[in-house]
Amino acid sequence: MTDQDFSTHVTVRGYETDTQGHLNQSVYLQYAEHARWEYLRAAGIRQADLVAGGVGPVVLETTVKYLRELRAGDSVDVSCSFAWRDGKTFQVVQRLTREDGVLAAEITGVGGILDLAERKLVADPREPLRSLATDPALLGL
User: Fold this and answer.
1) Angle made by CA atoms 78, 80, 86, in degrees to the nearest 5
2) What is the predicted pLDDT for the residue at 1?
3) Which among 19, 28, 57, 133 is placed 20 to 30 Å from 80, CA to CA?
4) Are 72 and 22 in contact (CB under 8 A)?
């Protein structure tokens, strides 16, 4: 696995900013969510595939470190990597980097794959993703 396996580009929109002109704190999480879905899509997994397979990703914990301002019009790369480990969960590491190379935020989290019928985490989150992906290597599987 590389430091950051996947990246997608976002431009900060004016309506996403707060009264100080900064990107609203909740939007950082939306950007991170967007990048995670784009990462899965790049590996060949669509939301419909997950639902048809009876599973869905869940976020169990998220930490955001705000490091530099993001303002309307800023170009931002949002990266994503999954760190697989034994057990039902995996770590997600994401970085928001401005076009000038300045790291604006780091988002780390813990995720899992939920069995939609049982409403419990699957024993090994790698397995359903590996079986659905057309490019499992992109996800480090």
Assistant:
1) 160
2) 36
3) 19
4) no
